[in-house]
Amino acid sequence: MATEPRPSRLTNTVVLIHGAWMTPASWDNFRKPLEAGGYTVHTPTWPYLERGTAAELRANPPEGLGRLTAGAIADHYAKFIDTLPEKPLIIGHSMGGLVTQLLLDRGYGVAGVALDPGPIAGVIPDFLSLSAAIPVLLRWNAWNRTYTLPKATFDARFANTAPQALRDEAYDKYVVPTSGRLFAQAATGIGVGVNTKARKQPLLVTAAEHDRTVAPALSRAIWRKQKKSAARTDFVEFPGLSHFLAAEPGHEKVAAYVLDWAEKL
What we know:
Elements: E1 13-17, H1 28-36, E2 40-42, H2 54-59, H3 70-82, E3 89-93, H4 95-105, E4 111-115, H5 127-137, E5 146-147, H6 151-158, H7 164-174, E6 178-179, H8 180-188, E7 203-208, H9 216-226, E8 233-238, H10 251-263
Parallel strand pairs: 1-2, 1-3, 3-4, 4-7, 7-8
Antiparallel strand pairs: 5-6
Protein name: Lysophospholipase, alpha-beta hydrolase superfamily
Pfam family, one: Abhydrolase_6
Domain AB hydrolase-1: 14-252
């Protein structure tokens, strides 16, 4: 008796959206299993961040980066996605997860994955997550200025479960200045609203047990708000990992879970 043919994928294309303080190179480990699974993977960077290496950007933050908004980042990725031959699976980390939700709200992508995402409007950050943003926000004219994550904070709150040697290497290679305005938007909900009830694409929201930047409580709150959609909305928490879950040891199980979730859609 003939077996039923396996349904085709929703897409063979993936767009990865990095988060604040990171460059696209932070996806180097995560993208490999996706490519091994037959996906074409794209990792475009945010506006302003194509102008040099991480070290060069830290030394000379680009004019205008401090005023970069979530909407402008979403516009940038929307223009890129418009050039693709098919709608992609959109995967975003941290503030890239916030941008992923904005793009889904605009109708982009066949599905989305928000890895430990920044909050959309209507989601109140818990104390731990808000405290991670306070150093960015409590500065004079923070709305218009860049902020570079200090190495000690990267070690303690961003990649706290990663080995020290990896933290040292990753900071030098990946960490760049980010937009103060973006963090003000995430904290106030201004400019980051989405109509969760209207979303038609599946969405996976993740948390990491030891995340001290986007705490599991915040990821769960985002998931609960996104569940107002009639579309499939899933949640998973990865034990033993930090906010650096897409690059630290253990990223393999994160990528494997995302791949399995996408294949079953």
